[in-house]
Fold this protein.
Amino acid sequence: MPDKPERKILDIIDGVKTIAISGHVHPDGDCAGSTLGLYNYLKENTDAEVTVFLEEPGEHLKSLPGASSIVNELPYNAHFDLFFMMDCGEAGRLGKMDKLLKMADKTVCIDHHISSQGICNENYIFPELSSASEVLFEMLDPKKVSKETAECIYTGILHDTGVFHHNCTSKRTMEIAGFLMSRGIDFSKIIDEGFYAKTYKQNQILGRCLMESMLLWNGTVIVSYLTKKELEFYETDGKDLGGIIDQLRLTEGVKVAIFLYEAQSQSFKVSMRSTVTDVDLSVVASYFGGGGHKMAAGCTISGNAHDVINSITKQLEIILRSRKYIK
């Protein structure tokens, strides 16, 4: 397989009249950035009817070009010539949008997760690239990338590289970022609003998670969690939790950070981040039916908070002991 996609988007959609685009549940920056980046590019370069079906993204992503056009509910028994599945490699991660796989004549996956299953008619899955947004960019004609498309793709790359901090950032990633900046986007504003600006509520929740976090194995692992009752107290459903896992990861001496919250009664969404390259978190996530990347992965586990923490750390312990991080 080549190190980047050779097929171009405009070739894939040749002759297509109706296009649906979607991504995974609880869309993050890369999911929203890649879906809306593709949406803007297609709206500007084709006469096809294009619709984005996606759960409502977080407040910091609602200002992206095209975000106001996102449709949150599927039309009954609709038909599409083509469906793009972005930043997502399995039907289950699409949530209720999984019906789009059956509602389209042709399906295309654009992803970068190592756990991606390649379930579409055409699959462009490149785990060595930083983000689905970077994979998407390699499939576009740079001359036809507008400021609006550039803003979306830049946002997606920013989120999955942690503002070019994570080790998935390559020389090519930076070259693409530079090109997108040349399109006139307000890159400083995108970074400030996406990573540093916090609402009072977000700061409260972050403070609570930091204060009630736990260190395991002499500070090798840090864990924090929020129950459904606590989410209700802060009047949030999970959209104000961005950045918590990354702040936990920055704790001195920590090799792995774990953050979980109770999305449904007795069902926790688990996020994991590693600071070392020899701890493959995708293995742990896959054990529980999740997936992701070597240094950033997630899954959903049923049970109470302590049961979930015990389950996830039991699997993580095997890897940490094999790498001599704990004795």
In short: The radius of gyration is 19 Å. The CA atoms of residues 310 and 316 lie 10 Å apart. The chain has eleven helices and eleven strands. The chain has a mean pLDDT of 94.
